[in-house]
Design a protein that fits this description.
80 residues; alpha/beta; Signal recognition particle alu RNA binding heterodimer, srp9/1
Amino acid sequence: MANKVNLKELQLLFNKIVIKSASITPSYTGNWTIIFMDDKHETYNLTAQRGEYRQFKTIDSAFQLCHKIGFENVEIVKMI
């Protein structure tokens, strides 16, 4: 089960070098979501203000958020 975190918590985890990678993946709604992973292979999902998982309409907007957090490399996962 993935840990739910808001943007501030995620930024703190990234700054403390807990979060190691980010993957942008399609969601079941046709939008995109970001899955973050630490070195122990635990996953983290970003939440929206209302508590549900944050989704992005485009890959570009998801990538921009990853870049804003500080990621230099982001994996794009394509589901078939």
